[in-house]
Amino acid sequence: MRYSMSLDGLWRFVADLDPAYHGESLYQDMRADCRHWDVVRVPGCWNLYAERYRLFEGVGWFAREFHLDELPPHPVATLRFGGVNYHATVFLNGERVGEHEGGYTEFTLDVTDHVRTGRNVLVVRVDNRATQMKLPAVLGWFNYGGIHRSVDLEVTERAQIERVLVHAVPEGRRAVGQIRVRLASRCDASPVRVRAEVVFWPGPQLVWEASGVVEGSEWSSEIAFDDPRTWSPETPDLYVCNVQLLDADNEELDDVGTLFGVRRLAVSDGRLTLNGSPVFLRGISYLSDHPACGVCYDPEVLTHDFAELGELGVNAVRSHFPPDESFLDDCDRWGLMAWVEVPAYCLTAPEAFASEGYQALAKQMAREMVEQAYNHPSVVIWSVGNECSDHLPEAEPFFGGIVETIRSLDPHRLVGYAALYGGIGHATRLVDIPGVNEYWGWYDRGVDGPCPGAERELAPGEEVDLGKLRECLAHFVAEHPGKPILMTEFGADAEPGFRSAERKLWSEDYQAHLLEATFAEVARCPQVAGTFPFLYQDYRDPSKRTNHRWRGLNLKGIVSYDRTRKCAFDTLRTIYQRLREEPSP
Ligand code: ADA
Prior knowledge:
The protein is an alpha+beta fold. The chain contains 11 helices and 32 strands. β29 (485-489), α10 and β30 (528-531) form a beta-alpha-beta unit. The chain starts with a strand and ends with a helix. Alpha-D-galactopyranuronic acid binds at residues 140, 386-387, 437, 489, 534, 543, 554, 556.
């Protein structure tokens, strides 16, 4: 039996204002007096704990106690952290039990030798100093610090399932695929058996079952069943795979259930197909950020946002980093296809591409991203990065390593990359589905120049000139014959509430106008298989230089930070309505 204890809830928190002086020893000790620390909620972003932490970037310490009435005679105990930004060092009962780098993927730590019955003290040191961060290379979204996803303790007897990976595609009238069950390294050597079943979700129709002895630390089996219901945005049907781990006496040691879907993605004749039919990704970029919860997952916020995406006719979302697993659960259920990205974001330095540290970290992030989201049918594209200097020779092995890591773990999905203004480099050449990020009609009008006087407003009756976009697409298409391409970013900032009949820059009207003009231009290019305007909502963005409009928020949302619709919301809804009726832009 698996005993899972949620360690979400109230923790103690203290900001270490001089980590170089204090070192690690000061707060890690289980006897440390935490009574003067703040009481805070985990998951949470420390920037939202109190006004004094709003811009805090540094080292923060978290501590909490938990009690275990008993432990089995031969326990296997794992701590699971959904996401800590950016670097975590974990101490259990005064001992350092592990560390993890990277803000947006889950990690687990074997704590079998450290957990005890009675009182346990868990301490986590979190460091989000931008100067210590490798990926993302620059702060393109707010660098919320803290334990921003759930924490759990999982205890089993003698053996434990580390991961269940399930994949199935439709083939004729059947579903065929594979299940792999991997055990935690800590399991003892006695023989164990796996029993697995697949049930149409929410049940009760059993469609497949199998069992077998685990050799080494992994068990796998082919899956096959008749008349599957395939997953698609229109019919987001799911199956649940339940796995039990049994000992020689048929005693249950562990059990895990995971949802998955049956669907096939492919590239054929320059088009993207889902379950054999061409599909156009009516997408939008989505960057998790909200005034109340920051980057943390909040079911109420997500339900609101996804209802709005439904209203827009969106069937795909793009995220700059691996989102919370609950976000992907929601994508599965709402029928949204997802582009999920390694945060190799705006990496430009040749020495970074060449560095073993960066390469290893990028591959680690790719591995964690793929394994954690593997079972989610919503995930259709793994992206290796965004707007990097991938034309550099040093970028070839760097991106080659990420692509290889992803393909070796998951040959069934597509690999993508979002290229700055459609630049052609090693990453775009290596992937199945390259993307174009472009802001013609926006930055080329001087909006991020040193003074507002440098901005070029539209003259009365003037149409926005997207000739450069046309050239870029023609070139990009010629360089990627047979590959579908995606418009992974485009748009303009709009100050919420600023309306202008003359379509002044920064107005909602200009943003809506540019969106329409861009879609009209993109419609001339049949190789475009999807569009992801940037983006759903305004968000905190340190990368934007403060000026007369930007004051900490990126304003490219088609809704404001607090989710008030801008004009572009209706524009996009009309465009996507049209695309639903004739699915090519
Ligand atoms: C880039 C980047 C986005 C955002 C955008 C912008 O394309 O990928 O994260 O920063 O620019 O708003 O300028």
